[in-house]
């Protein structure tokens, strides 16, 4: 009986965690302008360095993103992407890091 209960609780926790992750804000950084080249999706809370600066898309789904012109979110935030709106820019950006507020 205990094994069944623990397994059920563990499974429920995984499902809840996965469902919650589906609704996180996402910053998609592209290598080239116009959303071309390689890309990376950044959607974890806290500080992330941005490897590509050719263009970006932001999908605001509950968390805001503070943008920094320095790596590791150092210095003053240059811009804040809204938690409830999408945004994009087809031309290069100077942002080097993001802090997703969760």
From TrEMBL:
A Pfam family cross-referenced in the UniProt record is MiAMP1
Q: Which UniProt keywords apply?
A: Signal
Query: What's a BP term from Gene Ontology annotated to this protein?
Result: negative regulation of growth
- Cross-referenced Gene3D superfamilies: 2.60.20.30
Instruction: Return the SUPFAM superfamilies for the record.
Output: gamma-Crystallin-like
InterPro entries reported for this sequence: Antimic/Inh_G_crystallin-like, Antimicrobial_MiAMP1, G_crystallin-like
Q: Which residues form the signal peptide?
A: 1-21
Q: From the Swiss-Prot or TrEMBL record, give the protein name.
A: MiAMP1 protein
Source organism per entry reads [Actinomadura] parvosata subsp. kistnae
């Amino acid at each position: 009986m205990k094994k069944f209960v623990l397994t059920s609780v563990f499974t429920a926790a995984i499902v809840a965690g996965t469902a919650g992750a589906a609704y996180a804000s996402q910053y998609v950084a592209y290598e080239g302008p116009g959303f071309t080249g390689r890309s990376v999706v950044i959607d974890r809370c806290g500080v992330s360095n941005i490897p590509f600066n050719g263009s970006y898309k932001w999908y605001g789904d509950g968390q805001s993103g503070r943008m920094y012109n320095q790596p590791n979110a150092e210095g003053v935030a240059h811009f804040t992407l809204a938690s409830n709106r999408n945004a994009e820019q087809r031309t290069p950006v100077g942002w080097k890091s993001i802090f997703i507020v969760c």
